[in-house]
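It would be a great kindness if you could assist me with a short task in structural biology. The matter concerns a single protein, recorded as an amino acid sequence and a row of backbone structure tokens. The record follows directly beneath this note:
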Amino acid sequence: QTNPPTSPIYSPTMMASRTSRSAKSLKRFFSTRTPIVGGNWKLNAGNGMTTATIDELVKDLNDSKTPSCEMFICPPTLYLERVQNSAASHLAVCAQNIYSEPKGAFTGETSGDMLLDMGIKWSLIGHSERRDVFGESDELLGAKIAHAQSIGLNVVPCIGEHKEEREAGKTMDVLIPQLQAISNNVSDWSKIVIAYEPVWAIGTGLTASPEQAQETHANIRTWVSQNVSAEVADNLRIQYGGSVKDSNSAALAGGADIDGFLVGGASLKAPAFISICSAFD
């Protein structure tokens, strides 16, 4: 297995410097941000391809202990209502994508308005697979967020850089336009959780080191503080995503600016996902 990129993260003097682990722990202790962990099942029906494997995963999650963090799960669109009707009350159900219009001639799309009618109050937006595989742009991301804001839907916009961009020291150069597309379309930040997912770490087995993840999260929070407001930045929850596993979640959770995880493959196994959630206990 190759190592994650090690070139420096974009960190001009305005950005917060690294703190010691004890300082991080102290800041976490006094933070008012409730950790939030999401499981993105992608195009997987639990660990199989049937309603039975969906039901098995939901049952295992329902029967597991309830961590202290907030939790959501993102099944494929086809199973959203089934999971909504069977998941325990502490498991919010989240769509993987919505469109920027409530209805119309948009074959294959998902309406945020219709999600709310089903009782589903969350959606991911702008995951790197939507950007890279389906060509979705920051402009479309912004339009989706604007519509979600207009109907009161909670959204998790995803941002991240590719391996070559990190190695060139351009992480924040890539993230800032993505952040700008978000902030330009948000009026109610209480409905926003940002997921930072370095694209080079998604499904590759590579993971940003705790130091890399924390520094990038701190840089994101500093940008929000300087371009939106300090109050919004202090309250904004920022998740880390990218090959998060039960074996590395505790170390990553120690970052003062890491407020949760967006978990991929590990969320398809209830014991691993609950262990990851418990990193914030």
Observations:
- Residues 7-27 have pLDDT under 50 and may be disordered.
- Residues 210-227 form the longest helix (18 residues).
- The CA atoms of residues 11 and 219 lie 7 Å apart.
- The first strand starts at residue 36 and ends at 40.
